[in-house]
Design goal:
The complex is a heterotrimer of chains A (about 325), B (about 260) and C (about 290). Chain A is mainly alpha-helical and about 325 residues long. Helix content of chain A is about 75%, strand content about 5%. Chain A starts with a helix and ends with a helix. Chain B is an alpha/beta fold and about 260 residues long. Classes of the chains: A mainly alpha (about 325), B alpha/beta (about 260), C mainly alpha (about 290). At the A-C interface, helix 4, helix 5, helix 11 and helix 13 of A face helix 4, helix 9 and helix 11 of C.
Chain lengths: ~325, ~260, ~290
């Protein structure tokens, strides 16, 4: 068995196990709803993990794509009378289109210039969602109709838990396939040295664009799911803080680790839910935790723990 | 007509003429060495020919076709590979994976198949891995194939870069100081490696400071000094060219050489 | 004409604040290569501490001084407790650390102060000055004058004092600076302190015009970052120019096109500029050496 196939089995096995076990350990509707949120956020974080961890390109505006997916799902039925699922797919296509359009000039940039450009992109999307009140409903947000599949009204925390879980599993499977492919190797290569990659024949600009579009598709898919699941979206889903949350999920979990993105998403989704008990302290504690994680577990949770295990193992 | 030809290459960086009307040609199975003191423009010439810098004048022809100003990946697709003076290794990847990246152009890379992990992709991965392993055997690194590149010593990384460059089955291989920083044993290995590569029909261009290595393995030598061609010829011709001796040893050295 | 002058002054006033934030960014970036997203929180602290100290009965100048000191202490603590322990981390990690710090400072401010908007009295009255038919707030002149004084003072400090030269040496080459005996840790702490002070003064000066609240820092930091990048990061002249330019563009866009998208101008401009000039307006294009 090739090392790539082995990783695939381990990660998908671990994820599948978690998906099956959570409903037994935490069977309440509230817990299932939080878990579904975790799977949704993890899907978005996975895409960003491919962009940041695999290819080494940062995006501080990724919530913009998330927002496009979410709002398309809400606005398609409202203004055009489209089916919510079709609207979501159109939203994903729109996010991919935007990524394709702006990806080449943006990804030419490096380091902090790339950071500020992606940040600007995200903020502009957010601003449009807030400002075009007649279309988007502005800061108050907009309702999303219930998803109906062939006459079946999709409802209930168990159902949404299953749907979001399956989407995450698919997303992880695709991400793992990408990692273990020629394109995946090219992306890891350009992360380390763009010059050496291009001399080895890798079309660096094209590959960066490919992974940027894939990451946008992941985010928009997650955004659409969130809209269908919550049945309501506000511009916050596309905001700067949301972008930062996504990046933090990837980094806290461990950049370049598929499982890490899921762990990071779980942490940053569950934590605020737990902190609502201390409502006033929520921001202060969140900020503090982010700093502590970044300072003391710089590699991220999953690679950090893996490192510990390897060191403990007798030689 | 030579396999790789550069003619009249000129480039300046903010007023400083780094290369002035430099040219060279190399044929299949031949080794051309480019030598010269530090700052002579050797690496700059490499960077122009391999598409990293854009020359202000001059042209590069590969296999009879003009390729001036093409980006590096397009040149690689036409059979031009190179290594770097300051190592450009993919440190997050294993030695084997480094070489697999070199197979990039030989892989089909259909994105949809890759995303779905189709059997054709897995088969291709296996083929690339086997080819890469063969190349690691060729450069003598097979024992360290699975180690992360960051764990390899300097001399091994030099050979790893050569293996990666060979992975795309190039017709021209450009080596920028392949023996720099290597001990005599390692240098000898690289020496053997280069001759073996040339025997396979690859045109080899190398920049090197180790004169013994240059004189042993080169068919022709191009001497650069301050961005200009100082001399060009067989190793024996170049060695006895007074201008070369002067550039390398200075006037005193020249007089000393004459006196001796 | 009157409208032009009006917009010009409005733009220069906000631009001056962006310029100060961008200057703070640049100072810290030069010394440590860290982009400090908590920079906007210094502006917030400047305004908020002054407001609350003033309301508590302190005279305005003393309240302002206290606010600067609080900001400086925050800056030094930020360096000591978050940036220094994260030394050697990647760009992304450091960005997240400073964003975490920004969230933390904002969260604390919300606890210590409140969630309301607050104003300060204008330093020299509210009676507008007439200039070519436009009405100029006297406070605008305070902002512009204050910003100019800070820029000049910083220039003097960097060019004329030993400490300033140490900062520049550290920025140019940290290892070399350490080798000649410069305490680069102290220099970095100093950069954070000065940056914080600059931000706080900006916040104090502008609060009578724009009001302040615990949450004003984020958008200011983002726009200041855009301004710094517009000028080409690490270039103090570029930072000031970028800040003023953004302020002017915002004012004219709001006045002549649409005020709805005023906050988007900075980001639209930075995207367009970077598409054309990947290293900013005044940034140098580095030749990659291999």
């Amino acid at each position: 068995m090739s090392p790539g196939t082995r990783t695939k089995l381990v990660v998908l096995g671990a994820l599948g196990l978690a998906l099956v076990l959570v409903p037994f350990l935490l069977p309440s509707a509230f817990h299932l709803r939080v878990a579904a949120l975790v799977w949704i956020n993890a899907t978005a974080a996975l895409g960003l993990a491919l962009l940041m961890g695999l290819a080494g390109q940062v995006s501080l505006g990724h919530a913009g794509f998330f927002g496009i997916g979410a709002y398309a799902t809400a606005l398609g039925p409202k203004h055009l009378g489209l089916d919510p699922l079709l609207s979501m797919l159109l939203g994903v296509a729109a996010a991919a289109g935007l990524a394709l359009l702006v990806g080449r000039p943006i990804l030419r940039l490096k380091g902090h210039y790339l950071a500020v450009a992606t940040l600007g992109l995200g903020i502009l999307v957010h601003l449009v969602l807030v400002s075009e009140v007649a279309i988007t409903g502005g800061p108050d947000g907009v309702q999303v109709p219930r998803l109906v599949l062939f006459g079946w009204r999709v409802a209930g925390p168990e159902v949404w838990y299953a749907i979001t879980g399956i989407v995450l599993l698919l997303a992880a499977w695709i991400a793992l396939n990408l990692e273990d492919s020629s394109t995946g190797r090219a992306l890891r290569a350009l992360h380390d040295s763009e010059i050496a990659a291009s001399v080895a024949g890798v079309d660096v600009a094209r590959h960066k664009l490919v992974v940027f579009v894939i990451a946008a598709v992941y985010a928009a898919t997650a955004g659409g799911l969130l809209a269908l699941f919550n049945r309501f979206v506000t511009p916050d889903v596309a905001g700067f803080l949301r972008s930062i949350e996504l990046v933090t999920m990837v980094v806290i979990g461990g950049m370049g680790s598929i499982l890490g993105a899921v762990v990071g998403a779980a942490l940053l989704t569950v934590l605020p839910q737990a902190l609502t008990l201390f409502h006033d302290y929520e921001h202060a504690v969140l900020g503090l935790l982010i700093i502590l994680f970044m300072v003391f577990l710089r590699q991220g949770i999953v690679p950090g723990l893996a490192g510990l295990l390897v060191r403990r193992r007798p030689a | 007509m030579s396999l790789l030809e550069a003619r009249g290459i000129s480039i300046a960086f903010g007023g400083l003429r780094a290369l002035d009307q430099v040219g060279f040609a190399v044929d299949r199975g031949r080794v051309l060495a480019i030598i010269g003191p530090n700052g002579a423009g050797k690496t700059t010439l490499f960077n122009v020919v391999t598409g990293l810098y854009r020359a202000q004048a001059g042209e590069v022809r590969l296999d009879g076709r003009e390729v001036t100003g093409l980006p590096p990946h397009a040149l690689a697709a036409r059979g031009l590979a190179r290594t770097f003076q300051n190592l450009q290794i993919f440190f997050r990847m294993s030695a084997l994976e480094n070489v697999m990246v070199g197979r990039h152009l030989k892989e089909r890379r259909r994105l949809w198949a890759e995303l779905l992990g189709l059997p054709s992709v897995l088969r291709e991965n296996r083929e690339s891995r086997e080819k890469a392993r063969e190349l690691l055997v060729f450069v003598g690194l097979e024992a360290r194939a699975e180690e992360p590149a960051s764990a390899l010593p300097y001399g091994a990384l030099k050979r790893l870069e050569i293996a990666r460059a060979l992975a795309c089955e190039p017709s021209v291989l450009m080596l920028d100081e392949p023996a720099a920083g290597c001990n005599p044993v390692e240098t000898e290995e690289i020496d053997r490696l280069i001759l073996a590569i040339a025997r396979r029909g690859v045109a080899v261009v190398l920049v090197e400071h180790d004169m013994k290595l240059v004189m042993r393995i080169s068919d022709r030598v191009l001497v650069l000094d301050q961005g200009r061609v100082l001399a060009e010829g067989t190793p024996a011709e170049v060695r006895s060219d007074p201008r070369v001796v002067e550039a390398y040893l200075g006037r005193h050295g020249l007089e000393a050489a004459r006196a001796a | 004409m009157a409208e032009l002058v009006q917009l010009l002054f409005a733009g220069l006033t906000t631009g001056a604040v962006y310029a100060l934030v961008a200057l703070g960014f640049t100072l810290i970036f030069q010394a440590s290569e860290v982009v400090n997203f908590a920079q906007g929180e210094f502006v917030m602290l400047g305004g908020m501490v002054t407001v609350f100290a003033y309301q508590a009965g302190l005279p305005l100048p003393l309240a302002a001084l206290l606010a600067v000191l609080v900001a400086v202490a925050t800056g030094v603590l930020l360096h000591r407790l978050a940036i220094e322990p994260a030394k050697g981390a990647t760009v992304v990690t450091l960005i997240i650390v400073t964003i975490g710090a920004s969230i933390l400072i904002r969260g604390l401010a919300q606890l210590v102060f409140d969630k309301q908007f607050h104003a300060l009295p204008a330093f020299s009255g509210d009676a507008p000055l007439r200039l070519l038919g436009a009405a100029i707030l006297p406070q605008s002149l305070w902002v512009l004058g204050g910003a100019a004084a800070i820029v000049f003072g910083l220039w003097l400090f960097m060019e004329r004092t030993l400490l300033g030269k140490a900062v520049r040496a550290t920025a140019a080459n940290r290892l070399a600076a350490e080798l000649v005996g410069i305490d680069t840790r102290l220099v970095l702490a100093l950069a954070f302190a000065v940056s914080a002070a600059i931000g706080a003064v900006g916040g104090i000066l502008v609060t009578p015009i724009t009001l302040t609240s615990y949450a004003v820092g984020t958008l200011l930091a983002l726009k200041g970052f855009a301004a710094a990048m517009l000028g080409g990061i690490g270039n103090p002249v570029g930072a000031v120019a970028g800040g003023l330019l953004l302020g002017l563009l915002e004012a004219f866009a709001a006045g002549w096109i649409s005020s709805t998208y005023k906050d988007g101008v900075a980001f639209l401009v930075i995207l367009l500029v970077l598409f054309a000039l990947p290293h900013g307006l005044l940034g140098r294009r580095a030749v990659e050496r291999v």
